[in-house]
């Protein structure tokens, strides 16, 4: 009403004046003494604000911290992928949320505390005072002139949408798939490798939907190394052969398991395997020795896995004891095989007359949950939760556990006090 | 190619969200740019009061449980920069491009695409909003019973 009147008189844009403010306060029957001194007049965005370029992104504690620290965030996603947002450590799913309320974004708006020269009253003590004050002031209506300042504020944009983020597990699979395309199996076979499918660390990091820290974890998980500026994984047999040669040096040099020497290992294999491969594998497979400075020890789990993988070729099955014996014998002295090392490589099948160990590689299974469930139940009818976990965990999110997934995609039954999961159909 | 979100100097100044139920609408197709919306007051207890036209709204100051970052999209349109960043990653790019032709795989194609679009857009965190003023209640009309006392 106020603004319309002024608009008629002045064709130019209307600017709020202190007089207008005083008038409206009176019309609204607000007690000016009960207001803080500052009035902020709000205006719609100017024409020069490119509102299309502004977005609201909802943050969790971790993201907020990263932004306050000045860390860079990244949106990542290929042409046919859903975009994710990555901090240096975590990965988030990004989703637009529409709301019917209007969110007015106002730069430099002052909140209540900043508009008052005296501290704000708290509501509880305030009520008692207010009635007292009112009774005191009732009669002195226009005697006290309260100073009132007016500041103009422009809304930058009115939003009806913001982006919300949900933390998700890193999406590694693309990394694995890209690396599998160019498995390394010795310099003599390099001519078969498609050069254009070789990728550098940066190229992979840029395309894989996960944070930098998670990416580095992923590279370790896939046992990838850098050869001639490209990230590569080894062909299993080649990796096994090279590792065997390296492990052979332990007994040859009468080293204790935690006395392995890096330089010695590398120089002993010169001419047999490329130096970069040997040093790369060495760094993946060993950890610094706790006992001897500058010496190393092989990680039992990794060694046991590559050995098991060599025995447990796809399609093969072994009697339980037979497999464990062969496996143990193939390991360097002092290392012990454990069924848990087979996680994601093979399963123990107790359904037949004799328990047997079967190859079942997680990497080879379908990537859609429905196809994968079908494949798993075809391999074996009954599964315990623990058995399924290695094959299901790639589908889990912080809010979606393996058991929730199984509740949806499988049927559970209890036999002899043990809970099993079987196919739904 | 990832889209960078720069965070330098983020969170300076008090940017606020004023949340209103429904929408602000004007009659017909009036140009709203720079138009006056209303006055914002606070009472001595810190309660925000918003007067829009002849409506008064009582609200409340609220800490945002999840703060908002204000992102601004910008385009790095200078070609120099584009060249720099797309060439910098490695020499593999030239290999990738050298083998153009029918044998390109789909994967190849997407990766090349991702690289081509490198650094075209980026976002800057302009500010972080940690508090909002929310006006949930129905606006009350202001009745000026005195005819034109101003």
TrEMBL record, chain A:
Residues 116-138 have a biased composition (Polar residues). Keywords: DNA replication. Pfam families: Dcc1 (PF09724). GO terms for cellular component: chromatin; chromosome, centromeric region; Ctf18 RFC-like complex. GO terms for biological process: DNA replication; maintenance of mitotic sister chromatid cohesion. Residues 116-144 are annotated as: Disordered. Belongs to the DCC1 family. This is Sister chromatid cohesion protein DCC1. The gene is LOC108076712.
TrEMBL record, chain B:
GO terms for molecular function: DNA binding. GO terms for biological process: DNA replication; mitotic sister chromatid cohesion. Keywords: Cell cycle, DNA replication, DNA-binding, Nucleus. One of its GO terms (cellular component) is Ctf18 RFC-like complex. InterPro entries: Ctf8 (IPR018607). It is found in: Nucleus. PANTHER family: CHROMOSOME TRANSMISSION FIDELITY FACTOR 8, CTF8, CHROMOSOME TRANSMISSION FIDELITY FACTOR 8 HOMOLOG (S. CEREVISIAE). Belongs to the CTF8 family. This is Chromosome transmission fidelity protein 8 homolog. It comes from Drosophila kikkawai. The lineage of its organism: Eukaryota, Metazoa, Ecdysozoa, Arthropoda, Hexapoda. The gene is LOC108071949.
């Amino acid at each position: 009403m106020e603004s319309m009147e002024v608009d008629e008189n002045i064709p130019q844009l209307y600017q709020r004046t202190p007089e207008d403010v005083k008038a409206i306060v009176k019309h609204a029957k607000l007690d000016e003494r009960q207001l803080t001194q500052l009035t902020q007049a709000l205006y719609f965005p100017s024409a020069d604000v490119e509102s299309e370029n502004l977005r609201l992104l909802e943050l969790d504690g971790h993201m907020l911290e990263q932004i306050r620290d000045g860390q860079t965030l990244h949106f990542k996603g290929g042409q046919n992928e859903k975009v994710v947002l990555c901090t240096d450590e975590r990965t988030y799913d990004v989703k637009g949320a529409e709301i019917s309320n209007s969110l007015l974004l106002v730069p430099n708006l002052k909140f209540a505390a900043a508009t008052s020269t005296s501290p704000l009253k708290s509501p509880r003590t305030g009520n008692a005072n207010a009635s007292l004050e009112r009774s005191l002031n009732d009669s002195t209506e226009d005697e006290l002139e309260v100073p009132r300042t007016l500041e103009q504020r422009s809304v930058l944009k009115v939003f009806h949408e913001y982006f919300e983020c949900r933390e998700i597990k890193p999406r590694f699979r693309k990394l694995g798939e890209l690396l599998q395309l160019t498995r390394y199996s010795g310099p003599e076979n390099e001519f078969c490798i498609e050069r254009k499918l070789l990728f550098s660390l940066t190229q992979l990091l840029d395309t894989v939907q996960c944070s930098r820290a998670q990416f580095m974890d992923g590279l370790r998980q896939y046992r990838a190394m850098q050869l001639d500026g490209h990230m590569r994984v080894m062909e299993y047999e080649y990796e096994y052969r090279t590792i065997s040669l390296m492990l052979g040096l332990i007994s040859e040099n009468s080293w204790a398991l935690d006395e392995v020497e890096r330089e010695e290992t590398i120089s002993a294999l010169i001419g047999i395997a490329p130096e970069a491969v040997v040093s790369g594998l060495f760094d993946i497979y060993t950890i610094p020795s706790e006992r001897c400075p500058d010496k190393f020890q092989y990680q039992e789990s990794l060694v046991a896995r590559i050995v098991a993988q060599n025995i447990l070729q796809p399609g093969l099955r072994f009697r339980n004891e037979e497999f464990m014996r062969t496996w143990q014998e193939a390991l360097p002295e002092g290392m012990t095989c454990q069924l848990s090392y087979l996680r994601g490589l093979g399963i123990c099948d107790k359904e037949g007359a004799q328990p047997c160990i079967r190859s079942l590689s997680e990497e080879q299974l379908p990537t859609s949950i429905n196809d994968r469930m079908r494949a798993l139940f075809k391999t074996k009818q009954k599964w315990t939760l623990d058995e399924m976990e290695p094959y299901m965990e790639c589908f889990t999110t912080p809010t979606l556990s393996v058991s929730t997934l199984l509740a949806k995609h499988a049927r559970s039954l209890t036999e002899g006090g043990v809970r099993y999961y079987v196919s739904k159909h | 190619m990832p889209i960078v979100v720069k965070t330098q100097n983020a969170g300076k100044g008090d940017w606020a969200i004023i949340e209103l139920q429904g929408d602000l609408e004007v009659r017909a197709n009036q140009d709203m740019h720079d138009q006056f919306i209303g006055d914002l007051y606070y009472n001595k207890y810190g309660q925000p009061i918003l007067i829009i036209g002849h409506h008064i709204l009582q609200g409340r100051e609220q800490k945002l449980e999840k703060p908002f970052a204000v992102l601004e999209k910008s385009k790095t349109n200078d070609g120099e920069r584009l060249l720099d960043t797309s060439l910098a990653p490695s020499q593999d790019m030239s290999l990738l491009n050298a083998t153009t032709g029918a044998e390109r795989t789909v994967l190849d194609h997407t990766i090349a695409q991702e690289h081509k679009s490198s650094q075209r857009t980026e976002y800057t965190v302009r500010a972080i909003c940690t508090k909002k003023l929310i006006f949930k209640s129905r606006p009350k009309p202001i009745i000026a019973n005195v005819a034109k006392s101003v």
